[in-house]
Structure formats: C-alpha cells, structure tokens
Amino acid sequence: MITRLQHVGLVVENLEAFSDRWDKVLGLRPTELRSNQGKGFQFDSRIMLPNNCWLHVVQNWNPESRVNRFLHSHGEGLEHLALETDDIEADVAHLRQLGVPVYQDTIFNAADGFEAFVYPDDAIGFTVELIQPHASSWNFDQSKVANPNVRGLQHVGVAVRDVDRAARRFEQLFRLAADELRIDQHNGEQLDMKINMGNDRLWLHLVQPTVQNHRVSAFLEGYGEGLEHLCIEVADIRKAVYQARQAGVALEQKKIYLDREDGLEAFVEAKDTCGVTIELIEPYPTSRGYRPSGA
Description:
Elements: E1 2-11, H1 15-26, E2 31-37, E3 42-49, E4 53-60, H2 66-74, E5 77-85, H3 88-97, E6 108-110, E7 113-118, E8 127-132, E9 150-159, H4 163-174, E10 178-185, E11 190-196, E12 203-209, H5 215-223, E13 226-234, H6 237-246, E14 264-268, E15 277-282
C-alpha cells in the first residue's frame, strides 16, 4: 500500500549550478552530495522539505539512463515521483494483474530501497517510482530542513488533457483516489482535482486547462502530459518574493496574485529555476491545506 510521496525527482545539467541558483532564488540548497550512484555516471543530492519528503536532484551523464534520456528530450525539469510503499511486491503484483509492466519486469534491490518503475505512457504522463525502504535507504531528516520560511511542499502540479481520465487511471494503478473536482478556478480557465499523498497537507494537483492562453496549455503543447510545477507553501510570501527578486527573478505577470481562492500566490518561471516552475503560496485560513501558525 502507498504510504506517502517520498520524493520528487529533478533532472539537471549541472548540480553545482542548480544548487547555487536555488539557494539564491528560493533559499533551498541541496545537501548530502553523492557521487557513487548511477554506476558512477551520476551526482545526486536532495532538498529536505518539512512534510516528510524531499526533492531528489540528479545530474546523470550516462546516455543509456532514463534520466539522461529525459534531459535530452525534455531539458531540465521534473522527471518522476517516488511513492513509498510498505509492500512493493503486492503493489507490483497489482500492476501486473492490470497488465501494466514495470521496467525490466523487475523489483530492483537498489541503494535507496527496493524499487520498481512505471513509465509515463503507462501512467499519466510521468514516471512513477515505487519504493520500499531498507537498511541503507535515505530517510527523512528534519534537521536538514534549511529555510524556516518554507512550511512544506503543498502540491505537485500535473498537466493533463482530461482530468477525470487521469484521476481514474492514477487510482486504478496506485489505489489513491482523487477528489474535489473544481470547475470554477482562474475565472473558469481550468478544471482541477487533487489526490492526497499521505503526507501532511500534500497532494497531486491535476490540471486540465480549458483555454489556449494558459501556462499549462503551453506546457502540454511543448511536452505533453506530465509534471508541470511544484507548489511550495511559505509562511510569508512577501519575504519569499523579495528573495527571488533580489536574485534578479521577474515573477509571472510581475506580481503576487491577490485574487486566487487558494491563497496569495506567486510564480517563478522555469527559465529562472533550472527548468522547474515554482508556485509560492501563502494559504488563507479558508484555503484547503491551511496550517495555523506553529502547526
């Protein structure tokens, strides 16, 4: 059974350059650099986030690897989600019953756990890693959460062409159900649903744009369905925006959105953060996922 979103996989061209950039723009710097993964063709590191998950940042130069192929076809960006399970054999057996293959038909005994991979065409546009930790696995470490203004990864935005179909497919594969279909967001320019991940206040945000002049429409046109943005909850959005602007970043529409139902929002464009669109959000007390001060 899936217990939580363990990590989000990011592919970068240069890990050192990525680290410097994210530190300046977002106050988030990867730690725990490893150089012994990926058969010696990889550097990786991670950014710890408060709600029991992390970003796994990978620089890989093996042309036969999944992540290097992604880099050359897509560019830097969000490449996979890792869903932690307490019984990977049962979850893989469930997929096989559905006729859904896992990569090389194998559960790998890897450095970070027992792992199996469902590729984008069989999921909803992005690679899903199933992982069951073992003795040598990376574990969540609260002491490595570095930015006190960051309250957690609130959601991962997924660009889809049919939100209902994507939600049904994800539930079929991973037995995580979507809820809260909304048809009135952004002046009626999108349909969206959320899939809770098991972490504290963290969900997948499935977004189907209904107009052409929409950021997600542009993503679908350029890349197809897939992982489109990360939403980071902050305690003080003005402080977060000030840091981004001090780093020379111009926000989407050059502003903090004050008219959104989910909270005060600002978007850092992908070109400024190594291929990853970042939504900064300070929820209202009436917003879903709102956490009181100190929670």
